Amino acid sequence: MPRKIRQRNTGDAADFPPPTSSGYLVRDAHRAFQRLLERRIAPYGVTRGQWYFLRVLWTTDGLSQRELSARVGMMEPTTVIALRSMERSGLIRRVRARDDRRRVQVFLTAKAKRLRAELLGVARRITEEAEHGLAIGELSVFRRVITRMTANLDQIEK
Amino acid sequence: MPRKIRQRNTGDAADFPPPTSSGYLVRDAHRAFQRLLERRIAPYGVTRGQWYFLRVLWTTDGLSQRELSARVGMMEPTTVIALRSMERSGLIRRVRARDDRRRVQVFLTAKAKRLRAELLGVARRITEEAEHGLAIGELSVFRRVITRMTANLDQIEK
DNA sequence: TCCCATTGCATAGATTTCTAAGTATTATCC
DNA sequence: GGATAATACTTAGAAATCTATGCAATGGGA
């Protein structure tokens, strides 16, 4: 992902200038987080797509593919592809549930479990670097605001 | 893009629980913004990829592909593909610069210019909906914090 | 002036994501 | 108990993105 060249704010309110739009600011921040995360987990042979699933499975192992899709926020076909790559990399095993043979449960391998502490450390470090120079109070306002924005948008149907 | 099922915060600090991590919150918000934007510009036949380029060109028409790539924050091959689709949709013309025949300048068509006011309105409305119920002071802290986070991360090389 | 590095764009191929439709298993209802 | 619906996953195909490489035009130094 390339770093972005920032446009100067034109100050023309009628134009709805990007640099003051929340959505725009969120996109930029998101890209910055992704870029760094991607670069730092790559040495472990883990991609960003895999990261999201690991993150959930480290907390709750043995979920079905459908449950995983919902928690990670990806469509099921995407999950199939991601899990396939994780199986190839030896990060997960897929086990057909005995009580309901439609379900496939996903379990972390020992390898994936060993990566946990280190990779969560990577994420924690990125967060610290992002928050550097910001006061606790500011961060708490930030969290409240962005959570509310997400909730506001999520509740809109169309 | 599917809506995400949220995990409850386990409260286990050692686990670095997602719901309190800035990066996590930013990702969720980003997805919410994208989902809505995508849905609302689709009726105009504009995709999210095209949107970013329109946004820049509405401000500064006639940029080269390289300049556009930098401002939008995409790699040049991605720009080639996006611009090709925009040309097919009649949103832009590509004109080889006379003084330097390597450069291709990108100009908006009348159609794209006509879409400007309406589509910027769509973006503005999404912002308003996202910010609903939040105080000016909170929003201003939010903007300062997220801008600083992006700057913090962008300045890290590795 | 001519060679070679630089610049601007394009192509090739891989990956990741989506939507739409298909298959296998289980549950429901008469 | 058997037809039908619902559920869980998979496949197919398109779009968008990246990295690596190639091609054409330009510029700089001997």
Please describe what this structure looks like:
- 2 copies of one chain form a homodimer.
- The first copy, chain A, is mainly alpha-helical and 158 residues long.
- Chain A has helices at residues 22-41, 48-59, 65-72, 76-88, 110-131, 136-154; strands at residues 92-96, 104-108.
- In chain A, a hairpin with a 7-residue loop joins strand 1 and strand 2.
- The first copy, chain A, is globular.
- In chain A, 32% of the residues are buried.
- The interface between A and B is large, with 68 and 68 residues.
- Chain A binds a DNA duplex (30 and 30 nucleotides) through helix 4.
Question: Strands, helices and their partners?
Answer:
The structure is a homodimer of 158-residue chains.
Chain A: H1 22-41, H2 48-59, H3 65-72, H4 76-88, E1 92-96, E2 104-108, H5 110-131, H6 136-154
Helix pairs in contact in A: 1-5, 3-4
Chain A binds a DNA duplex (30 and 30 nucleotides) through α4.
- Proportion of strand residues of chain A: 5-15%
Say what oligomer this is.
homodimer
User: Mind summarizing the main beta sheet of chain A?
Assistant: 2 strands, antiparallel
| Cα radius of gyration of chain A in angstroms | 19 Å
If you average the pLDDT of chain A, what whole number results? 90
CATH superfamily of chain A: Winged helix-like DNA-binding domain superfamily/Winged helix DNA-binding domain
Q: How many structural domains of chain A?
A: 1
Q: Cα distance, first to last residue of chain A?
A: 30 Å
- Give the CATH architecture of chain A: Orthogonal Bundle
How many runs of DSSP E, i.e. beta strands of chain A? 2
